């Protein structure tokens, strides 16, 4: 049996599955239920500074994108940080940590951007004996209008400054939670590292307007006839989060900085993928809010069975393993070629591959042969783009078959099997040492 | 044959009857419809469309349902098939669009096109909105004979194209077999009549009921008075067993079904305790199922060939069998048995097929019964047309691809023409195609006059 336990910037956790700072971790009641269900750790719902409690809207605070059968694909919220008194949260955190010493408990924080405010809250959190803190530099709505959350996360200098204060005024590990609402995610990550962060976590939610009610012409979710943008999360954001996580993992400046991955994680597979891209732990919010805490049982067993099947003894064996295989476009091999191939036994003749290629790609799939409905790829036209395989409703019906080394690509007339990237390609006017034949304009 | 014939009404309570004759299919609600619609792959040159005799753009209307636009879906349907509502109820989809659906090939579970079509059309009818308007009047006047699916579809398309239409119908009500023939549990709640009203709502169509071609007027009178004539006469006759069919207890299935469709109290209909149905088509299935649902104890369909040769689809057969009907094969009626001048049973010869012909095996079987229904095919009553005026083929009217008969200015379609499928949807297509052809001919004529 694989060992699922992890040590993440010094914090021990029986498995890499944490609940992200959000409603599932709002209070002791939820967190204890989560631990009972098997979650390895939680990041407590973000605490603010002492004073009058936060006020949330009492209208709908969530919106969702559903499939026809009402599966939640994308989720959005306009909730603020915790609206419970600081005192109560701190007391509960202390009790929960005392009762569940083997689980990770991180406290998420967001206070105004002054050293005094941070100093004050750090001291009080330290007394709870929580394992660490996460700096919420990501909340994209409401709090950011007050100069906190994403308003900090979008300015690398602020990220660095606040991180440094936290390291100076506390002995706890500091995880910096990044906002995706920024054009280059590497910048705030680098800033966090400069400020002394022990880890980064990402992504927080993405600015979003979920839709417009076409009867009232009001965007939704709306409160008393007015709407505001919210934060987008759930399965739909996973690819965006994976890109950002891997950008940080392969950036030489931040390579090796522990990452807690967040964004659209629903299953063990999602988690494993993020981990191969460099994440030491994963955090989940929407999936728990959709299905409840029990999903962690599927995640634990799935990850464990996969690790057993692959012979991985612990997470160290695969965390970051896919990072070296991610590169820039210019390093991809342009002499490699695949052709789409349709398995005629599996084909149900829906014609979607044909119309997709015909209308929007390379006119490479015939729709008729000998007067019969028939779909077949014409290799002379196929650029190997994969669109047909994407739209085919039958799994494995269209496969992309690599051409063997030495074979001639019937489309370009050039031999395949070499290895030239854009940097060596004769069609690249900037190439230093171009070699081999150029790609010519099609004859017609 | 000792048992006494037992044919009587009121075998079941009103509640039982109401349940037995309720809608065969549970209609989809909004959520179910959207989930069902989501399964459609939006195929290119979709096979389901090719399989639909009226070529409804199925992927388009299903997508319109999926995106929350059922009225748009209904417009897509009715543009191709003005009886899309009835067809959604009565089409043997398992041998038409749903058989061709690629998801049938893929996983044996087609997109539920029929139910989705019903959802869309029901949504429209519930709003009471009329989607069609009569076209600008052309001044041309067309006579349609027969207010069944073929005649009404033709009349509707002609009206949309601006021609004035008079429909002559022999019966008291319009609708043809939609009103008098389709099984009661397929067209509940007075749907047939409501659909006729919707069709006539386009305007420009006058229906004269109780007017019969061949009795009240002749074809020559029509061709004289009108610019064009469409014949949608259906099949007025039924085949006889030729075994002394006038014996008490021997009935014609089509006539009995018509009675059943027209009664406002099913409990008044007499039905036998033990019923035998002779035939292998939709009519045989329908009378058998409805006999069972009226309270007959034992119902047996006897067909002279095997299950594969039955005209009724597998699904239709299954409906009957689920109702408790026994289907027997390879038995040819030989002799009726009578007691006191009433039917008491029927004797069959076992047959087998040799070189395409049925030959007796020498064995026989007797089935005791109180009531026997003939459902061995309908025939066209050509006499109404007047002798020798129109070319026939196999006992029905011969038409070309545009549904033109051999007689100038006369078109025909539906069950009364040769080579058809004897389905509601096929009759609708005939009417539509004939209207398009008539329109083309009339407009060409108008151009010449101008
Ligand atoms: C019992 C039964 C069940 C069926 N079930 C199904 C089913 O489930 N699904 C399906 O698709 N099909 C079914 N069919 C077949 C379908 O009903 C017919 O194919 C369809 O109705 C043919 O339409 P039509 O307009 O050609 O003829 P009809 O519907 O027969 O209409 C012809 C009309 O013309 C009138 N008429 C006839 N002669 C004259 C005259 N001389 N002058 C004036 N008017 C005249 C008749 O009164 C009638 O109203 C069934 C048929 C039967 C008998
Ligand atoms: C209702 C809701 C409230 C949230 N509140 C917080 C918060 O207080 N602090 C925080 O750091 N992130 C908050 N988040 C963001 C989540 O922690 C997480 O980063 C994001 O939802 C992406 O993960 P997911 O795709 O698994 O939901 C919230 C998310 C949701 C849906
Ligand atoms: S891979 Fe692209 S170009 Fe080739 S057949 Fe498929 S869609 Fe067309
Ligand atoms: S998309 Fe797939 S199933 Fe459909 S026709 Fe093409 S190969 Fe066949
Ligand atoms: S064949 Fe089936 S899946 Fe394809 S368009 Fe028709 S209903 Fe949809």
> Total strand count of chain B, please?
19
Strand content of chain B: 15-25%
Can you name the CATH architecture of the largest domain in chain A?
Answer: Alpha-Beta Barrel
Report on the biggest sheet of chain A. 8 strands, parallel, barrel
CATH class placement of the largest domain in chain A: Alpha Beta
Total beta strands of chain A? 22
Main interface pair? A-B, 14 and 16 residues
Main sheet of chain B? 5 strands, parallel
CATH architectural designation of the largest domain in chain B: 3-Layer(bba) Sandwich
What are the distinct ligands in this entry?
Answer: flavin-adenine dinucleotide, flavin mononucleotide, iron/sulfur cluster
Structurally, how many domains make up the residues of chain A?
Answer: 2
What proportion of the residues of chain B is helical, as a percent range?
25-40%
The first-level CATH class of the largest domain in chain B is given as Alpha Beta
Oligomer: heterodimer
Low-pLDDT residue intervals, each spanning 5 or more residues of chain B: none
* Strand order across the largest sheet of chain B: 4-3-2-5-19
Please work out how many helical segments of chain A DSSP would assign: 12
Strand order of the largest sheet of chain A: 3-4-7-8-9-10-17-18
Structure class of chain B? alpha/beta
